[in-house]
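Hi team, as promised in this morning's meeting, here are the two structures we talked about. I've kept the exact order from the run log so nobody has to guess. The first one is mostly here for context; it's the second one we should focus on when we meet again. Sequence first, then the predicted structure tokens.
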Amino acid sequence: MDKRNLMLPVMVACGMPGFSQEKPNIIIVNVDDMGYSDPSCYGGDYVETPNIDRMAAEGIRFTQFYTSCPISSPSRTGLTTGMYPTRWGITTFLQDRAGNAANEQNDFLDPSAPSMARALKAGGYATGHFGKWHMGGGRDVKNAPSITRYGFDEYSSTWESPDPDPKLTSSNWIWAPTDEVKRWNRTAYFVDKTLDFLSRNKGKPCFVNLWPDDVHTPWVYENDEASQRESAESFSIVLKELDNQIGRLMQGLKDLGIDDNTIVIFTSDNGPAPAFDGHRTNSLRGQKGTLYEGGIRMPFIIRWPGVIEPGQVNGQSVLCAVDLFPSLCAIVGADLPSEYRLDGVDMSATLLGKEQAVRESPLFWEFGKTKKDRVSPHIAVREGDWKLLVNADGSSVELYDMKNDFNETVNLATSNPETAGRLKQKAIEWFGEAYRQYADHVIRVSADGDPTCAGDAWENATTLQHAVETASQFPSAQIWMKQGTYDVEASVNIDDVAIYGGFDGTERLLSERGWKANPTVIDGGGTVSPLRNFGLDRTVRTVLDGIIVQNGISGSADNGSGNGGGAILANGAKVRNCIFRNNRTADGKNGAALHCHMGTVTIENSLFVNNSSTGNGGAVQVGGGVTAKIINCTLVNNTSSGPGGAFGTGNDASNINIYNTLAWHNTGGDGSPSSYGQNTNKDGGGKIVSMNSAIESDSRKFADGDDVNHIMLSDNNTPDLQNPSQVTGYAGADMTDGEWGAYSYALSEQSLCVDAGNAALTSGLEYDLDMRRRLSGRQIDIGCYEYDNGEPSVTSPVIRVAVDGDNACDGASWDRATTIERAGELAGMYATAVDVWMKEGTYVLDQTLNVDKLRIYGGFDGTETALEERDWNEHHTVIDGGRKISPLRNSALESEVNTVLDGLIIQNGVNHDNANGNGNGGGAILTNGARVSKCIFRNNRTKNGKNGGALHCHVGKIHVDNSLFINNTSSGNGGAVQTGGGATAELVNCTFSNNKAASYGGALGTGNSTSDVNLYNCIAWNNMGHGTYESYGQNADIDGGGSVKSVNSAVESVSRKFGDGDDSGHVVLNRDVTPAFEACSSVSGCSYDEALWSDITGSSYMLTEGSICMDNGNDSFVEERYDLRGNLRISGECVDMGAYEFFPSTAVDKPEYRKAGVVYKNGRLVFTGTDVGDSFAIYSPDGIELRRGKITSDLFHMKYDGRGLILVNLNGNVSKLYVY
């Protein structure tokens, strides 16, 4: 009998006292970017993996094991700490400083975080890390702690680490041909390191991270072809070598005589990339970088001979990488850290195969908060058999049944509102609590602080200088400054600190401070420039927030050529909620308050007053090659010797983006009002853009055509400030706080700057400089102070437009209807997206319309007072590109938009090569968050090989329902709709017919393996791709593309995408099996032949009696109540496929393809396609006549208050109609 089996219950229950060789060695093999089904024991068929398979046969293979994040650094953080990585500010892969800052993450994992290695080392283990690290270091991050700080005795790692092994890193990149250890030998090198470490520590238990990185692209092998380093063939060769090395590891354990006493775990950090159309995930949806199963469900094998019964498969227990820390410590009797509560739970008995525990606590994930092109929502929760995904703002709710639908094909959020609502709230609350919870190290300071104190509490407050020196030890440090005046005798290095003012010394949270009530002043005393970046040539994490910087002065002896009186800042620095006053430069230097030295510097919600420059830039100077973003700032009474009294630029490479900003009463070198100028030329400098800003300047930079809603201030056109000082420039050394406080630069009620900004240009700050709500009334104000004119408008404004609208009108009512072009301009004046109601008619556009903030609804006759009163089928609203332009396009293609296109006909669009999105999209290009409903796209085209004849889906998720795509042509791919890389097109109850593409996708095209298409209740037939009847294809491969799913859809296609196992209810159409449309056009693709136009517009794609598409849809995907014709969406047993719902016998033959019928809508019986004089009669089901009459107009309708089934006799033809 194996003694360790007798000891196991003791070990699990209370741990083993003392240090003993009976404690098992632990090796965690954590492979980089391995797909769920890469090993053959998980269904992989690229290459046999006999050594990995043998591990599974000799241990337990788990099928519901999750990583803590679908990308490298946070995944490794979760495994290391036993906590969700978002708590520690590691949210995506660690990159350079600028990239980390942009993703709101730290540069490295805080070494004070819990560490499994540190806990095991305290429990008597020798610890080693061999392989990829990626939790800090590499690129331009030079201050990451050594791996030993996390509890490892020895290590050898790759370039993404603080101290890479020189044999692996001849360059600062993943690999190089000059590396001593070649990429194809790297795993062997790490296995050798592991076995050597184990052999040298045979007298004590060992813990080893063996983290190979060769399954991460590029896949390189000896004498390979460089162009094939992301091919399936190269992957197979690399995977085979990884398996060989796993075999070497396992044999090495036997050779050392420690195999029986070693726990070996095999898993991966995240899903694969590329996923090869789900082939590497066993058809699980998604891949690396998504919260779908393909991104987070990992292979997981654990083996411990003599303890774990071999040959087990656990398909019931849900485990996560965060569970390994507490579970392994429980197995070996090591103590868990007490400073932080781990998120992982003890699943030791399950890991050892003694039970198959059902997880009691939910699992959470976060990934993609800052990603504009995220494929999945950025929060997920798994509780029992339910998994929900959602964004923090509550959007994009997806609910899946993991027991019956682990491929995540059917979103059950609508049909299970109670479960969806409960999990949605739980997920959002978790994210609010966990996001960066422990990411920032807080150091508290006060004006009378003790330099020997650590600043870990207000009673232990330290000095500003000591806090800055201490901050460099942490990945992200915040300095909280208690109110008071801090006299600075030497410039303070603020390279990697975030300084926050406005504390009274009692606060526990940053949100509790108040910079208005608790002024925090940093004073240069007229002798020094108080705040300076010392590392001017690098990216910094500097934040200045809620402080007053005054009486600074710079000169020739200071860095940055002596520029910057109050401060000098480098790339990445941010200034918010600050006041710069009474600062100067000497010796002809620039930027009295602030000099922007390098890269991009952002300044928001700040006031600059009475600063004086002996050079240029009375307030802010922007150096060569620098871009300053100045948002909601007020600059008044500043002076300079150069022409830039407020803003100055150094040369033609100095750029300023001025948003919602007020600059007035600033004077240049000649004493005249002049807020802007380049050092020697008021019309010089780089790109100077004013958007929704009010500036006193006659520089031609504000008349060069790139400004939007620019207001020119002057003596006769002032901002009406409440009580500004009349003193310009430096106000003297004796100004007191009380004297400064006597002046006010807030707006008066009548100011032209009230409600004149654009909230979309801000970062979304909650308060203005006076700590009043930043958004009041219908729109944000210009400047740093918000005039309080009521609660922010929560209802979306409605702008009404007409073909003959007046450009001078605001569209507030139908009799003040404006033009569609003016509606687009007016939308920029509102904080939220606006509703545009379009009166019937044809709108021929001369210029592309930016629809980022537009929700466009067609179908109005010009009398409606509510959206529900419109009738898109009766009152056609046509947006026409005039065969010259692509009429509707998202501009911010990498952002999430609120675009809605509803009840429109988009026709005659054509792309241009110089348009955004690489020129794709004939009728429209849309991006993440856009929705299309009840629209017709017809006769649009692309030229010059571009994709998406009607519509190009650029990135993220685009939803289209109840829409018709006919006679569109692509000179590239996607005759109707093209889905770009990283995009998901969700198409519900749409019909695609008579479209044409040069490539395979006659109707639907995809760009690459990350382009996904979900078809629900759709029809695609009679489309021509690559010269044959073919509805789908990737650009160059009919079988290519990402995840392409057909659910209850009928598609004419021979692509293997519709036979790969992820489709359900799919109907294969062909020349013999057709959808039986009423009157399909004889024209294929787009045509400019006027003789064929009536054929295109007069066609009908409604279903006829007996169509295979009738009652063959899936009701679960029905979101809209009405179809494209305005009929109820479900008639009969279940929903039909396509854009039109079949209603039996409601049509009467008319000449020229016209159909006469009747529908019920909004309390009315609406007769369509009829002629004046046609007769009708209405009967109850038992034959009682209820109403009789004649059609008296072309738009005849009548009120009807009844309910239930009625019979309608129209010109002798009797039909049934259900009135609801």
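And here is the second protein, the one for discussion:
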Amino acid sequence: MAAAARRAAGLVPLLLSSPSGARTPLRRALSLIPPPRSYRLLSHPARPFSTSPFSASASSSNGAAAGRTRELQLYNTKSRKKEHFRPRAPDGEVGMYVCGVTPYDDSHIGHARAYVAFDVLYRYLRYLDYEVRYVRNFTDIDDKIIARANQLGEDPFSLSKRFSDDFLSDMANLQCLPPSVEPRVSDHIDQIINMIKQILDNSCAYVVGGDVYFSVDNFPGYGELSGRKLDDNRAGERVAVDERKRNPADFALWKAAKDGEPWWDSPWGPGRPGWHIECSAMSAHYLGHSFDIHGGGEDLIFPHHENEIAQSRAACCDSSINYWIHNGFVNVNSQKMSKSLGNFITIRKVIEMYHPLALRMFLLGTHYRSPINYTIEQLNVASDRLYYTYQTLRDCEESCQQQQKNSGDSLPANTLNYIQKLHDEFVTSMSDDLHTSVALAAISEPLKVMNDLLHTRKGKKQEKRLESLSALEDKIRVVLSVLGLLPSSYHEALQQLRDKALRRASITEEHVLQKIEERTAARKAKQYEKSDEIRKELAAVGIALMDGPEGTTWRPSLPLSEEEGVLAPHGMAASALQPERHLLLLAGGGGRHRSLLRMPPPRAPLPHRRRHWPRAVRVFSGDGGGGGGFASAVEKRSVPGAVGEDQGARVEEELEGVAAGALELRWPPWQGLADRYKLIGATSLAFVICNMDKVNLSVAIIPMSHQYGWNSSTAGLVQSSFFWGYALSQLPGGWLAKSFGGRKVLEIGVVTWSLATAIIPVAAGFMPGLVLSRILVGIGEGVSPSAATDLIARSIPLQERSRAVAVVFGGLSFGSVLGLLFAPPIIQNLGWESVFYIFGLLGIIWCLGFESLKEQQLGDNEGLLSYFYFADLEQSSTGSDGLVSSAVSSESSDLSLEDLRNSLKDVPWGAFFKSKAVWAMIYAHFCGSWGHYTCLSWLPTFFSEELNLNLTEAAWVSVLPPLGSMVITSIAAPFADNLISNGVDTTKVRKICQTIAFVSPATFMMLSSVDLGLPPWEIVAFLTSGLALSSFALSGLYCTHQDISREYASILLGITNTVGAVPGIVGVALTGYLLDSTHSWSISLFAPSIFFYLTGTAVWLAFASSEPQDFSKSGPES
């Protein structure tokens, strides 16, 4: 019946205008049958995993093993979250409709991205044993087709058919399975007219002079898919807005005929369908008014799919689609690739130079919802990886064919483990919203194992070697088949990859073989320099020479420039753009990306010249430093004699300079600053580096998760491990700062976290090692707040304290900004490992600079620092001066072990916990940290997955809250200090600031979590405003420790920070767990933060106090 219906052809009256303008009728037979295909699908029959991954695969009629688990989560654009896939008819067909192309030009990579993504979904649904009815249309009559036909002087239908056939050829080259039905608009005019009639009958459309417009005012749910308010919407048409519309957002269902355009008769006069009605009519015709999946590119969400929902429900109130799925853009120079923008790169141009499956692998290397930036480098990487994969599988196939294997025997345990692991990683990644990049990464280890079995001495001796090879190859074939990457022949695919590489290099294989002969002769003649030059020449154009026992062969590889060739011995070879012949494909270029899949450099490393770096040289005038010549300030510090001569006058000179505001030019610029300002500046810089090392993982966790296959819970565990060390080090850090002085403790902390950061790439593949390294980072950073608090409490008067705290702790926000700004480009260009090496090195450099500053203060300027301490100590009897009335920090470092024990015993722990003010600080710190740490760790992922921003965009948006915090901090600190200077009660000032810090983010998080249909950038603006205003806490909670006790400020901060680190451990991991369980960012991220912000405000207003408290005396509860 269905086949007969598809074969039925209707005769539709089609009228074309004659050149003179008179319309003449023309009847044309329009078939519903998709055009015949002349291509052969380039794939093996699928051999999917069986229920038991250790047994031989048993294929059913559709290529899927019986009894397979059907767990699948898909991101639904309409609900804005991942949902378990539950088809309308569990035992029937899955209906899937994907919007097809408008064939007026060659298809570009953006089209390939969309249809490869939905081809993978189609394949995976079939792999899960679903029967799928896949419909993909052709919009073969449209304004753009008509305009192009007029431009070329061609009939619109012949033009659209020509480009439709080319599109089908492109899809075949990319190994996209043919859909069940490929309807064309011109074949379905009757269905379209009938649907328009239904919409008019339901009073959701109106006729204006032969045009029919949909009335959005009569459809209250308009905008629910895109989240756009009706007031924000425009017509969403491909032409200018018609002034006859009742509402500018109304869109055309039927367009009246114009001269020179094809048209059909209708109840409203001659005309043709509008853009949007076509898909509604065709999807309803083949799948019914309600079906399972509707897909397309992200750019179709509005207006096309929004309009489809409106008109389908207006025609049939029961119309419903369960899952709306959209793929991300392909970008060129960070701009969406499209025909209308003129920056598109056609599929045909790419596959002239690259194998079609290399393009497919490139597209599958990024999650389908994330934008992907087109670069030649990434295509080179994909092509290289494809060659390695096929070569391994071909070698395996040939080895198994040449030797007899015993099929009845069981496999070795390690082989079974590899197969089980591959199965688990493949199914887990694909069932989690089609993470194809993780599925591709899953085959890396089995391929390595196969290479070991094929080529290493140890592997060749392994028991049941051939059986293991065959089983591993069988399972990898399944993965490649589902991903659409399995060729009809490995040998043919390898030859095609070699041919494409030669074409890119603009050379022939005969030329390569001639070069190999020349190189062999040069090596025999011991002309090694010439031999290396030949190898470098070929490597520069992507031809790698491989020396082996049977001679030298060649294979395609990543092109290497001469500079990269020099670095090759160090394992730093990377891809490079080649000359102008590649510009044909790139149309203006694109940003460089480092691949996650790297191939080893050629076997024979290039010779490289040892580089001699100049050593630091000091220039002295005269012999023995005794006299005479001019010496700069730096030189004087290097010469003992020079330092000794003016050491006694330095303090007096610098104090005079400060007092008189000396106008002479100084270098370095901070030379004339008081030492307390230098200390504050250096401490702030340490906090900048501190947060750079904290947030780098928030960005790097995305490529790390893709590479290692981590889910949200595992990523949450990795990120929360930092806070284990952070919590453990708070109290010890406070006590150490009190005992040894904040300066020394800070320096040790920076060294610890910097070295721990630098070893993260080494430990990343071993989860316990990675967790331990992050714990060490947490320990190093955990002692720093207490150390900084000790420095501030000892050296900064009350009237300057808010600004000092703002400068020091504001470094955290600036560090977040720098980290989030620089981490993405570093990761994209150098790999995620490099961000940890570079950021770790910054801390070591800071330590060297801080050490020299410290030596200068203890030597040249020792008297200056003491002057500030003791001048204030002489007035410290009342404590109103704001400085520490205890031993000087520098003296603390000379404490004996017995002194340390006594110091620890002397801490009035009991008095701390009898104070209501301390408990208010503890709870407020906990509440503020919950919102801060969970947002710091998860906002980049939220922006990437929920708002569909790519890695760079997500990081840029994540920069906005700390950037806003810097602005707010510069306002809040003077605001608080001025109030205190003008006599406002300190407690009242701290309560005002902390209330702003808590209520603001709670309010904006509420607005962001409630489904108000807000566009992404309004949500970003709300979160930025709320989190920025939370920095008022630097003039509230974070000053209260010093306010109530200068002597024990560092220990009090250690107490509150210990509790405040708990959200980093619990909150970050809990957010990941809730996200996996609920798939709701509102429940997982925002709701807990709102609760703690509001309860923290209540507790703070009730019990907080900044009145100085003498904890060393036992007194009543305060």
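Starting points for discussion:
Residues 964 and 1028 are 5 Å apart (CA to CA).
The two ends are 87 Å apart (CA to CA).
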